[in-house]
């Protein structure tokens, strides 16, 4: 016959075993849950990397970062001295517009865009006849002072070679509030998948007709699909300014980041030549 003490000890052992079994099950469930979470995180990280890889010369709308191939990786480089002057007093504007401005330029005339930057003056000869919507938009925005005091926020120094500007936010996600149609994508200069040095072209979100105010200046031949409206060329003195900016490098040391040079457009003007 089992005594009360033996019965009590048996019940205590049974309780202990049940507790141990529950703890084992909880640990197993926790391991499975953590493994599942880790898998989701890995997928999210991979998706983010894929999104960044598929986006590059981005533009005004928020995208999963602004879409051409990004530049290839480059060996880290030491930060070069800033070759540029201090920006003029002032800050970027915040005005937005709901729609593209009405056509107000003479599409048969020649126009020039002058970028007075902290690193030197960059003059752009605009291709009005081939990209009238783009030139008209830039004339409108420049007249509004939209580009004044804005940073050129991105420099690529490997794979593709461009300086990207025109974002009042300085993040790659700003714009005027409206978009303009793609133009001049049949230009023979870009037909073979290269944007030649000296080209100025529109950035976009990777989707057709999503250009806004962001643009990029090509300082060295760059392999890119013909998806970015080329709307002008850079004069020789402007190319020297771009080479100076490029020589200072970019912030990540990986070939794609903010320029080390303090590149700010103090004043932008578009005038009929």
TrEMBL record:
Keyword Ribonucleoprotein: no
This protein's record includes keyword Transmembrane: yes
Chain intervals with Polar residues compositional bias: 92-102
Highest taxon in the source lineage: Bacteria
Residue runs in coiled coils: none
Positions of transmembrane segments: 35-53
Biased composition (Low complexity): 65-83
Composition bias type Basic and acidic residues, residue spans: 11-24
Biased composition (Basic residues): 1-10, 25-34
PPIase cyclophilin-type domain segment(s): 120-270
Segments of this protein annotated with the region Disordered: 1-34, 56-102
Annotated InterPro entries: Cyclophilin-like_dom_sf, Cyclophilin-type_PPIase_dom, Cyclophilin_A-like
Record keywords: Isomerase, Membrane, Transmembrane, Transmembrane helix
GO molecular function: isomerase activity
Pfam families in alphabetical order: Pro_isomerase
Role description: PPIases accelerate the folding of proteins. It catalyzes the cis-trans isomerization of proline imidic peptide bonds in oligopeptides.
Identification of the protein by name: Peptidylprolyl isomerase
UniProt source species: Streptantibioticus ferralitis
Lineage: Bacteria, Bacillati, Actinomycetota, Actinomycetes, Kitasatosporales
């Amino acid at each position: 016959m089992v005594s009360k003490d033996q019965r009590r000890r048996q019940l205590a052992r049974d309780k202990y075993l049940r507790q141990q079994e529950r703890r084992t099950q909880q640990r197993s469930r926790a391991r499975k849950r953590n493994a599942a979470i880790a898998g989701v995180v890995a997928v999210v990280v991979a998706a983010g990397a894929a999104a960044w890889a598929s986006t590059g010369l981005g533009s005004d709308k928020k995208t999963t970062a602004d879409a051409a191939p990004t530049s290839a990786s480059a060996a880290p480089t030491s930060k070069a001295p800033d070759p540029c002057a201090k920006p003029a007093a002032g800050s970027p504007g915040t005005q937005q517009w709901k729609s593209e401005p009405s056509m107000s330029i003479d599409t048969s005339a020649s126009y020039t865009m002058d970028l007075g930057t902290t690193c030197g003056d960059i003059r752009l000869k605009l291709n009005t006849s081939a990209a009238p919507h783009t030139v008209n938009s830039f004339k409108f925005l420049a007249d509004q002072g939209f580009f004044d005091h804005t940073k050129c926020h991105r420099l690529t120094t490997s794979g593709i070679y461009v300086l990207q500007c025109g974002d009042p936010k300085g993040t790659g996600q700003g714009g005027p509030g409206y978009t303009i149609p793609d133009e001049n994508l049949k230009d023979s200069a870009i037909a073979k998948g290269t944007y030649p040095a000296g080209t100025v072209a529109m950035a976009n979100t990777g989707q057709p007709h999503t250009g806004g105010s962001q643009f990029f200046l090509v300082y060295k031949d760059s392999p890119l699909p013909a998806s970015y409206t080329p709307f002008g060329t850079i004069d020789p003195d402007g190319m020297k300014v771009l080479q100076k900016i490029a020589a200072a490098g970019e912030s990540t040391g990986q070939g794609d980041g903010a320029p080390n040079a303090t590149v700010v457009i103090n004043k932008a003007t578009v005038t009929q030549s």
